[in-house]
């Protein structure tokens, strides 16, 4: 697979493994995921936390 994602209570972060792109969505305010919030200063800490959690999971998860 070329993408991985992680969900928190309200947000979803998607990482595109081939390009390194990251998409961040607010699932409560934007259920159809139309507005990518990546790079917003007010969400930088959340983005970093979700990215770290996703990378930690990838380090332990078997690849298919």
Q: Can you give the helix content as a percent range?
A: 25-40%
List how many beta strands DSSP finds: 3
The total count of helices amounts to 1
Looking at the structure, what is the overall shape?
globular
Termini gap? 8 Å
Our count of domains comes out at 1
Strand content: 25-35%
Oligomer: single chain
Order of helices and strands: EEEH
Major sheet details? 3 strands, antiparallel
Rounded to an integer in angstroms, the radius of gyration calculated over CA atoms is: 12 Å
Helix vs. strand class? alpha+beta
Query: Mean pLDDT, rounded to whole units?
Result: 93
Low-pLDDT residue intervals, each spanning 5 or more residues? none
Strand arrangement, major sheet: 1-2-3
Task: List the defining traits of the structure above.
64 residues; alpha+beta; three-stranded antiparallel β-sheet; 3 strands; globular
Structure description:
The chain is α+β, with helices and mostly antiparallel strands. It has one domain (3-60). The chain contains 1 helix and 3 strands. It has one helix at 44-60, and strands at residues 3-7, 11-16, 22-26. A 3-stranded antiparallel sheet has the order 1-2-3, with helices on one face.
In short:
The chain is α+β, with helices and mostly antiparallel strands and about 60 residues long. It has one helix spanning about 45-60; strands spanning about 5, 10-15, 20-25.
List the helices and strands and how they pair.
Elements: E1 3-7, E2 11-16, E3 22-26, H1 44-60
Antiparallel strand pairs: 1-2, 2-3
């Amino acid at each position: 697979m070329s993408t991985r994602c992680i969900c928190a209570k309200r947000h979803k972060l998607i990482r595109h493994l081939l390009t390194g792109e990251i998409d961040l969505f607010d699932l409560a305010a934007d259920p159809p995921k139309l507005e990518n919030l990546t790079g917003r200063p007010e969400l930088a800490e959340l983005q970093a936390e979700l990215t770290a959690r996703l990378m930690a999971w990838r380090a332990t998860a078997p690849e298919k």
